[in-house]
Amino acid sequence: MAINSKREQILEALENNINDIPAIVKVKRVQLAFADLENFAGTQLPLVAVVGKLPSPSPHRAGRSTGLHDKFISTLTIELFCYAMDNVNPDTLVSNLADDLWAKIHSDTTLITEAYPKGLTLEVVVSPEVTVGIWDPYVVFKMNCSYKYVHGTGGI
Question: What does the mean pLDDT of the chain come to?
Answer without folding.
Answer: 86
